[in-house]
TrEMBL record:
Upper classification of the organism: Bacteria, Bacillati, Actinomycetota, Actinomycetes, Micromonosporales
Cytoplasm among keywords: no
Protein origin, superkingdom: Bacteria
Native source species: Dactylosporangium aurantiacum
InterPro entries reported for this sequence: DinB/YfiT-like, Maleyloyr_isom, MDMPI_metal-binding, SCP2_sterol-bd_dom_sf
All residue ranges annotated as the Mycothiol-dependent maleylpyruvate isomerase metal-binding domain in the record: 12-153
A Pfam family it matches: MDMPI_N
Protein name (database record): Maleylpyruvate isomerase family mycothiol-dependent enzyme
Length: 233
């Protein structure tokens, strides 16, 4: 599986197009309905996706210019921005999301080759400073945000709609819990974890369970019960 951000950018384009198609259908009261994220409406999710695009554009600016530009000014500023934008009208939220996605794509397109190796920091992860990562990881991180939160909109797009390339990559992502050896329902070993039970099932169901986007219904475990999970994100 490639880590080349320019190759992954085509996958990001397709994921973004699917997301925008869904958001376009959420007119009227569609954005005030609850999402799958506790305490968030769909409007919160859409606003988060717009501000997340801005945040990742900040990181790419850091990589391009060498000027330290945090993704968010602070965790509090991140939350405040989402809360402030969540109740806006559908047309305004859609336009904001489209613009944010377009500007992020422009930042990806104009990144010099050497910029992708520059180390940047997300900010904090579970209250701790996040480790530096190459800017190249921003593209994959954005794909994760788009695909997972598209499901969180609870508007007809689910894990079964994820492309196989995304499903297989997320199973190997460092952020995904390593609690079991994973085997697909056709017998293919997808991930090996030493001294751990074996969990078997469709790849997209495994990915949904591990990322908190599904209860694991239909999965089987060599111990008779699924391992407990920490929050993925």
């Amino acid at each position: 599986m490639t880590a080349d951000p320019l190759v992954l950018s085509a996958e990001l384009d397709r994921a973004t197009a699917r997301l925008l198609d869904t958001v376009r259908t959420l007119d009227g009261n569609g954005l005030v309905a609850p999402s799958r994220c506790e305490g968030w409406t769909r409007g919160h999710v859409v606003t988060h996706l717009a501000r997340n695009a801005d945040a990742y554009r900040n990181l790419l600016s850091w990589a391009r210019t060498g000027v330290r530009t945090p993704a968010y000014a602070s965790p509090e500023a991140r939350e405040a921005g989402i809360a402030a934008g969540a109740s806006r009208p559908h047309e305004e939220q859609l336009a904001d999301l489209v613009t944010a996605c377009d500007l992020l794509r422009e930042s990806i397109d104009t990144m010099p080759a050497e910029g992708w190796t520059t180390l940047v920091q997300w900010g904090t992860t579970r209250g701790e400073p996040s480790p530096p990562v190459p800017a190249a990881r921003v593209v994959w991180a954005r794909i994760c945000e788009v695909e997972l939160h598209h499901v969180d909109l609870d508007a007809g797009y689910g894990p079964a709609d994820w492309p196989e390339s995304f499903t297989l990559r997320i199973l190997h992502d460092p952020a995904t819990p390593r609690v079991a050896t994973l085997v697909s329902d056709n017998g293919t070993r997808l991930l090996t974890v030493a001294d751990a039970p074996t969990v078997t099932g469709p790849a997209h169901v495994l990915a949904a369970w591990l990322t908190g986007r599904g209860p694991g219904t239909g999965l089987t475990s060599s111990t008779g019960e699924l391992p407990s999970l920490e929050e993925w994100k």
